[in-house]
Write the structure tokens for this entry.
Amino acid sequence: MQRWALLVAAVAGFLAVGLGAFAAHGLRNVLSAEYLTVFQTGVHYQMVHALALLAVAMLLAKNPARSLRIAAWGFTLGILLFSGSLYALTLSGVRSLGMITPFGGVAFLIGWASLAWFAWRSR
């Protein structure tokens, strides 16, 4: 699980940098200012949670606690649903894709709550 979390964190971070550059240079003249901001929000949340997932991966190397595994899955699912839905919404223009975004937000919250639970229970 630790290797998997580290790999997902690295790929998510790599893609966040690439997608951020793509938005800044390739989408600047294609998307409206509103959609460009929405896309950048996806990039921002993806990078923050890639770093959180990296921290969880390092913790998993020392302690394979269930709460850490849940945190890793929460952050991963959150990136896919939250950021992914924002990317899909802005690139396709299908506003109904925004209905997926809150599920990603809930996954992020589960990840953070699980990490807090791990910290609370650690001695």
